[in-house]
Amino acid sequence: MHQTLLTCLLAASAFAQTATLGSFTNSDDVGDPPIKGAAEFDRATSQYKITGSGSDIWAKADQFHYVWREMSGDFAVTATTKFLTEGIGHRKAVIMLRKTLDTDSPFVQLAIHGDGTPAVQFRNAKADNTNTVDFPTEGPGTWSLKLVRKGTTVTVWIAKDGTPLRELGHTVNQLGSPILVGLGVSSHSQAATNTVLFSDVSVEQLPGPTVTRQEHGIPDSEQDLVIAMRQLLFISLVSASVFAQNGSLGLFSHSGDVGNPDIKGSVQFSDGQYRMSGSGANIWAKQDQFQYVWREMTGNFTVTATVHFVGDGAEHRKAGIMVRQSLDTDATYADVVVHGNGMPALQWRSKQGEDTNAFDLPFDSPGTFKLKLVCTEVKVYMYIAKNEAEPKKILNTEVSFRNPVLVGLAICSHQADASAIAVFSDVSVTSEEPPAAKAQ
Questions:
Q1: Phi, psi (5° rounding) for residue 241?
Q2: Is residue 260 in a domain?
Q3: Total domain count for the chain?
Q4: CATH number of the domain to which 69 belongs
């Protein structure tokens, strides 16, 4: 990657601008891979054959071949992909939204790997590390991909071998407008190329209002945002002496509020169940407020719990399983949560003080949810089921924690002036043997 990082910023004049690319206007390599890529567009079939080299679309800088056009506002992109050549399992074919052609540019993409692993990946800021949400590997095949941007919300669908598209969920991304929208291929190797056939490609500009980050409790106006963040920024770091150390918390050892909410929370443990009451603005953005019950752990572990809300409250109140680096309000964390409206989510803050990332799943209504969080090395896995079904592995991301970590249950009302109540049952906490390392 040293060679990539030393690459000069790519100038627009270096790229091909042609009228023979169908829905797109330009094509070329990003990141200056040693082996040059190419794009062919067949007008008769409206298919794109894209050949790309490059180390990866990953970490802090990218190498791949890109076919794109500039767009603003809301839009939908669909494509069916098929790898035509053999190669490394983690080679990628993607629908991508990218801020610039710089190798370290912010981006978000829906990717299918050569081994059949779907993923949503994004770099939030220039030169940041890439975040990933990986879904269970289903094996190679012909994959249909769909990505829709409305405001700051990016929603994705996939389907394999001609089956109907199914929604995976959505995330929030701040790329703005205009951006570069297109198709990309990376071989995951500087010494090889890979060729992918893209068919059934469509790029559609969408009308209508945009969706803002208000769905996660981020105020629409800058003034409200400043006021909300100022309230949290004046909160001092939470010390261990604030929290209750209690022998009556079952599997856990401590409980208390993180972020000093105005209304104090509580935990009652009886007959194997935890009845938790918690207030707080949110578990979101750069600082958190919530009620937490936890224990200290090292190594790999699995936590399971069945949870349901008691009474009414804000749609985006949250209850779930959390692993947290510390009790600081801006600590690194990951959680598997369900919202009051029934929306499940995997959330994580990769580094202390950074913004929260989230991937929200499709949902229909509230209910009783079975949650499972598995932490193995840097990978955090989300399992979930509703009502009587058994939890299934849905997705995973990567977060780097230092041992020891704080593992437990969390609840947040999403309202500074109210509390939410949830009951957790069938709670288990088990240590796991570390798995064999797997390449990204």
A1: -65, -15
A2: yes
A3: 2
A4: 2.60.120.200
Amino acid at 44: A
**Distance (Å, whole) CA 12 – CA 84:** 29
Question: Which tens digits make up the pLDDT trace of 205-260?
Answer: 999 654 444 445 444 333 343 334 334 433 333 333 345 555 699 999 999 999 99
**Same domain for 222 and 196:** no
Neighbouring C-beta atoms of residue 234, cutoff 10 Å: 8
Domain end point (choices 186, 206, 226):
206
Residue-wise pLDDT tens digits, 66-95: 999 999 999 999 999 999 999 999 999 999
Question: DSSP secondary structure string, 49-107?
Answer: EEEEEES-EETTEE-EEEEEEEE-SEEEEEEEEEE-S---TT-EEEEEEES-SSTT--E
Give Cα separations from 173 to 106, 145, 148, 339, 343 (angstroms): 10, 19, 12, 20, 19
**Dihedrals phi, psi of 34, to nearest 5 degrees:** -60, -35
Domain containing 249: what range? 216-432
Contact present, 194 and 83 (Cβ < 8 Å):
yes
- Domain membership of residue 370 (yes or no) is yes
Of 440, 337, 434, the residue nearest 394 (C-alpha)? 337
> What's the pTM?
0.88
418: left (phi over 0), alpha (psi -120 to 50) or beta: beta
Please state, in angstroms and rounded to a whole number, the distance separating the CA atoms of residues 226 and 243: 29
Let me know how long the chain is: 440
State which H helix or E strand residue 386 sits in: strand 379-386
Q: One-letter amino acid identity for 49? A: K
The answer to whether residues 336 and 382 belong to one domain is yes
